[in-house]
């Protein structure tokens, strides 16, 4: 890995009450690197709480069913399809956490929990079925040149015959985007195995958030003129990153999937820091702020408070995300 490094310095001086003074200089790190071993290869763990606890054991087990997939890749597909909602139903009649259409389920659904039934609404069946279907597709296109995981995902989107006919990922923009989306999302669900690349947009996002210090909190606030320029927590982080050209989802628990997840002792200014009611489930995240260094964040805390500096270390601290442009683009649009 080649690293070209500038520097990041954050200095926070804390006075009494709300009197905070922050001097922050953020340089740029340019690092080339990807998930070690490549998507679909080697032992891949799941990032902390990225998959709801009710499904993490299933995803970890069945995500290792064949070499073309891994737990993070399977998690990315489930998140893309349903947001881990076992009751999801689409306008195209796709059903359950893995969004099988009835015809595909009839052919490829498996009895994952051995209870004698194949139930598309039961994650104990649907998650194993999703992994099994991926592996069947991978087997079908195994003689095609190129990356086995990319070919499997292309077969999932465009059909195995198209992958065979074109000798790899077909030249369809929808299929190529699908392959990129899932492999990018997989990196956000995987536990990092190496140093996480810093964001080049972090300084601008922090600068935007600093400019809003003292602004009163508004639940549902996105900073519009009609709202008096006020924000809630995820409205502030969304606006801060929008100011540097990155579009984040509206809610905090989806923002968690906008990039890889540095450990607490690896935090850099600009990382998003999250707080959850459930330490094992990112879907239970209830608050987000922008890390500025020294154990502090800028956040919009709650009704009656203003945007301010707050410490990040508390009993509900969940984890962090280093926002990337590709990671944000890969996230599905949700209401």
Give the structure's gist in a few sentences.
By secondary structure, the chain is of the alpha+beta class.
How would you portray this structure in words?
The structure is a single chain. The chain is an alpha+beta fold and 335 residues long. It contains eleven helices and nine strands. Helix 5 (148-158) packs across helix 6. Mean pLDDT is 87; it is low at 1-42.
Write the layout of secondary structure elements.
Blueprint: E1 3-5, E2 8-14, E3 20-26, E4 29-31, H1 53-62, H2 71-82, H3 102-108, H4 123-140, H5 148-158, H6 160-166, H7 173-189, H8 202-211, H9 233-242, H10 252-255, E5 272-276, E6 285-293, E7 296-299, E8 308-311, E9 317-321, H11 325-330
Antiparallel strand pairs: 1-4, 2-3, 5-6, 5-9, 6-7, 7-8
Helix pairs in contact: 1-2, 1-4, 2-7, 4-5, 5-6, 5-7, 8-9
Name the descriptors.
335 residues; alpha+beta; five-stranded antiparallel β-sheet; two-stranded antiparallel ribbon; 11 helices; 9 strands; 14% strand; elongated; disordered N terminus
Overall shape: elongated
First and last CA, distance: 39 Å
**How many strand units?**
9
* Major β-sheet strand ordering: 8-7-6-5-9
Structural class by helix and strand composition = alpha+beta
Gyration radius, rounded: 21 Å
Q: What share of residues is helical?
A: 25-40%
H and E order: EEEEHHHHHHHHHHEEEEEH
Strand content: 5-15%
SS element count, helices: 11
Largest sheet: 5 strands, antiparallel
């Amino acid at each position: 890995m080649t690293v070209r490094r500038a520097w990041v310095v954050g200095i926070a001086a804390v006075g009494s009450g709300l009197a905070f003074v922050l001097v922050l200089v953020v340089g740029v790190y340019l690092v080339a690197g990807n998930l070690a071993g490549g998507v679909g290869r080697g032992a891949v763990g799941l990032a902390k709480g990225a998959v709801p606890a009710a499904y993490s054991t299933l995803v970890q087990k069945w995500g290792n069913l064949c070499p073309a997939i891994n737990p993070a890749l399977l998690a990315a597909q489930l998140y893309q399809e349903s947001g881990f909602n076992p009751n999801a139903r689409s306008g195209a009649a796709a059903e359950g956490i893995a969004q099988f259409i009835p015809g595909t389920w009839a052919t490829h659904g498996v009895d994952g929990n051995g209870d004698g039934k194949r139930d598309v609404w039961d994650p104990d069946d649907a998650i194993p079925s999703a992994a099994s279907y991926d592996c069947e597709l991978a087997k079908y296109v195994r003689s095609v040149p190129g990356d086995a995981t990319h070919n499997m995902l292309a077969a999932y989107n465009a059909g195995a015959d198209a992958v065979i006919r074109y000798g790899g990922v077909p030249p369809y923009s929808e299929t190529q985007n699908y392959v990129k989306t899932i492999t990018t999302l997989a990196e956000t669900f995987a536990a990092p195995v190496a140093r996480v690349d810093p964001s080049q947009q972090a300084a601008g996002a922090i600068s935007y958030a600093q400019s809003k210090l003292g602004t009163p909190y508004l639940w549902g606030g996105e900073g519009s003129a009609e709202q008096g320029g006020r924000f809630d927590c995820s409205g502030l982080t969304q606006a801060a990153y929008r100011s540097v050209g990155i579009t984040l989802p509206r809610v905090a628990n989806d923002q968690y999937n906008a990039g890889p997840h540095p450990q607490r002792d690896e935090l850099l200014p600009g990382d998003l820091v999250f707080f959850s009611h459930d330490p094992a489930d990112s879907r239970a995240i209830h608050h987000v702020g922008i890390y500025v260094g020294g154990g502090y964040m800028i956040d919009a805390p709650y009704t009656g408070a203003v945007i301010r500096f707050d410490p990040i270390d508390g009993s509900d601290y969940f984890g962090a995300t280093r926002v990337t442009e590709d990671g944000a683009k890969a996230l599905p649009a949700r209401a």
